[in-house]
Write a structure and sequence with these properties.
128 residues, mainly alpha, two-stranded antiparallel ribbon, 6 helices, 2 strands, elongated
Amino acid sequence: MKHIFNFKPGSYYKNQKERLKLRLKWFNIVKDTISIKCKICGFDEVWHALHFHHREPEDKKFTISSMMRKKINKINVALMKKELKKCDCLCATHHMVEHRSKYDLIVDYNKIANVIGFKDKKEINKYV
């Protein structure tokens, strides 16, 4: 049976270096397409803390981060640019706030309160 992992010394770091180079090349393509700062607060100091939020989740074909792991070619670049036009760049905090507001519409806080022993939604909001 042939091993699928390459355990040669230093190979892990070589692969990580290649992945980082690929991500940086994709990042340059992304920043030419969409503003790389939080649309709400303007945060732009750490690009790892920025997320691409799909405004209409049902129109989402793929995540931006998944495409950043693929080869850069004309087809992938065109797909990426098309997908980015459906997104807003948000900092991690505002991305969570955006999703929380949507989850609030479907969460029955009274049921949760009963299960965990709180009286009502107000008491839960102290912790979430």
